[in-house]
Amino acid sequence: MLTDILSWAAVMALPGPDIVAIGTQVSRHGHRAGFATATGATVGVATWSILSLAGITALLTAVPALSVILPVLGSSVLIVLGLLAIKGALSAQRAATRATTVNRSSPESSVADLPVPAGSTPGAPATPTTQSTTAAQHAPVWFRAFRLGLITNLSNPKALVFFSSFFTPLMNHYSGVSGKASMLGILLLVSLMIFSAMSIVMKAASHVPAAHHPALKFLPGVVFLIIGTYYLIETIS
């Protein structure tokens, strides 16, 4: 059991879309948003786990087309998240530039009076949670962070491969409903602990001066875009 838990923890700690999502929320909204994102990612892991135990592998075998369709959809979601993040970074940069220009020309001007694009904060790192709809803009920060973690995890094209090749064989080590349920509970708790630990580490890293370089505002979007594009090309090639 210990070997299975350690192996699971090592896989959960590997850099990927979940870690990027947690990092962007921590840098913009703080550790609470990071924990909310971590919780969303853990719920995503729970969803994939339950689907695997319910026999999603057999379904993919019966309908081979799903093995291509689902990863393509997931890759597309990651690409969209990346584009939204880059768009948000551009909006934040323009707002910050306008604020600087007005402050230089009129010292009495207040930055608070400037029009700021919805969902953007001057000088703040943009994240894939930037939305164009009014409902999304007024949603609580914790809810948007949780939603981002959930969507990011569920849209990861590699999840199908991971849960089919790693999780399912791991769970075969345990018999009975109670045995599998207990192990699943432990693995989900480990996942939440790993993701939460990443949130704490990234919060500490955000205090480093280099972390506030303007170019880093575009990093989350670029990473999502690269990962999504890579997975998409890999799936259809």
Automatic annotation (TrEMBL):
A GO term for molecular function: amino acid transmembrane transporter activity
Primary localization: membrane
Pfam families on file: LysE (PF01810)
Residues spanning the membrane: 35-59, 65-86, 181-202, 214-233
GO CC annotations, alphabetized: plasma membrane
Keywords of this entry: Cell membrane, Membrane, Transmembrane, Transmembrane helix
Annotated membrane topology: Multi-pass membrane protein
Ranges for region Disordered: 101-131
Residue stretches of biased makeup (Low complexity): 115-131
Official protein name in the record: LysE family translocator
